[in-house]
Amino acid sequence: MSQEDRFDILVVGAGYAGSTAALITARSGLKVGLIERGEFLGSKIVMGNLLYSGVLRQIIPDLEENAPLERFIRRRRFCCLNGESAASFEFESQKYNESPHNDLWSVRRDRFDPWLASQVEAAGGKFFNRLTIKELIVENENVVGVRTADGREMFSDIVIVAAGGNSKLVPQTGDHPEYPPDSYILGIAESLTVPPEIIESRFMLKGREGVSINFYGHVIEGNVGSAFLTTGIDSIMIGAVFNARSLKGQVRNAPLRFLMNLKNHPIVQRMIEGGRTRALSTYIIPEIGFDFMRNLYCNGAMIVGDAAGFLNSNTYPIGSVMATLSALFAAETAIEAKRKGDYSKRTLSKYSERIVSSFTMDDMRKFNRNPWFTDHYPEFFGVYPQMAVDLAEDFLSNDATAPRSRQQRVFQRVKKELSVFPFLRELMESRKRFGDYL
Ligand SMILES: Cc1cc2nc3c(=O)[nH]c(=O)nc-3n(C[C@H](O)[C@H](O)[C@H](O)COP(=O)(O)OP(=O)(O)OC[C@H]3O[C@@H](n4cnc5c(N)ncnc54)[C@H](O)[C@@H]3O)c2cc1C
User: Fold this and answer.
1) Are the C-beta atoms of residues 122 and 131 closer than 8 Å to each other?
2) Cβ of 186 below 6 Å from ligand 1
3) How do the domains of the chain map onto residue ranges?
4) pLDDT (tens digit per residue) in 291-317
5) Relative to the CA of 321, which ligand 1 atom is closest?
6) 435 pLDDT above the threshold of 70
7) How many CA atoms does the CB half-sphere of 326 hold within 13 Å?
8) pTM for this entry
9) Which of 83, 79, 86 has the alpha carbon at shortest distance from 216?
10) What is the tens place of the pLDDT at every residue in 59-96?
11) Does the C-beta of 37 come closer than 6 Å to ligand 1?
12) Which fold has domain 3-70+107-176+290-357?
């Protein structure tokens, strides 16, 4: 083995989690290799393009000045749709124009991920792209390195697996619980090129202000999930994320159909008019949840980000928080292990301890109830949002009847269509299940 292929730490996958772990360990003076299968970083990654930057800002204090962030999110809209109309709740604050801008930015992964990997190189790490890791090298129950698809072997004291939600490398790190076969989240996203001045006038934004919209109801055709729109500097990202289970086998073409529902909705159509498709991709990952969480470490290896199962909500994906936080904890543990010269499970278990004592585990526990809730009450995602729009429409429609009789008509509809008692019971149940989130 050449010295070139011997490292202190090897990190597989240069998404948020992998590049963050590689950056922290490289900065501490360790010899780090960051390996990515893609040719163009970030080009294959589908997401709503929102970066929750709080953790990353602690690691890179000049993130705002130097990173290719797109727009800070000044306005958030939660929007229920029926076929023609929309009823929204919107929050906007002038406060967010001040640094750190509520730590919420839009990013384009094809711009942001290469920059993050370049920070790893600037800190002395070695970056390999177009290199697919086929398997971990295990000797005497210790992970000691990785083998590429074309047979190259690279060795290290510790391997950090950051290869995303479908990583085939994870099972090689030990026993993991079996997922229920229908526990998958599907996502589809399209990036549209739109000139900055059009985005700014259409959404009433100034300079680097941005907007993020979540859509509920019509688009997902009564299934469990939501759709999104995020403004970048010169692009608009739109897409949908939903759970496969609620489709009850009708998965074929569903992602594209939902995307078209969104794009063809008369209200959304105006927002994206004239946009040229830049990229379109789909994604499938297990909705893991606390009960099916993976073992986070073994002798010589740790698992971070989506690969570790930290994305567990199809209704509110905040994977960038979990990815960067788990990477931070794994990197700190790796640095400690190197100092001790002990890469065994015992030392690497500190990673798991850090996770357990952070809010990450609290979130996992709470969102663990998410699949239960969405299976039992899919109407919160399909029927109720559409009904809210129907009722608003009725209430606000101007016809020859007196306002008082319109109000009565709406209350009659609420009574009839909502069946108040089951609805109240569901609300109580959701409060019990989600506690602090509601
Ligand atoms: C539709 C959708 C919308 C979302 N929207 C948001 C959002 O707006 N905000 C948010 O915070 N989160 C969002 N998420 C979640 C977020 O995208 C993920 O949680 C986050 O990208 C996880 O980062 P990661 O580094 O763990 O994995 P990834 O970002 O998936 O990175 C994994 C990397 O590993 C590489 N890789 C994989 N296998 C190998 C291999 N064998 N060898 C070498 N390299 C390999 C991949 O090419 C990739 O670059 C969304 C998810 C979906 C599905």
Assistant:
1) no
2) no
3) 3-70+107-176+290-357, 184-286, 372-437
4) 667 789 999 999 999 898 887 555 556
5) 11
6) no
7) 32
8) 0.91
9) 79
10) 999 999 999 999 999 999 999 999 999 999 999 999 99
11) yes
12) FAD/NAD(P)-binding domain (3.50.50)
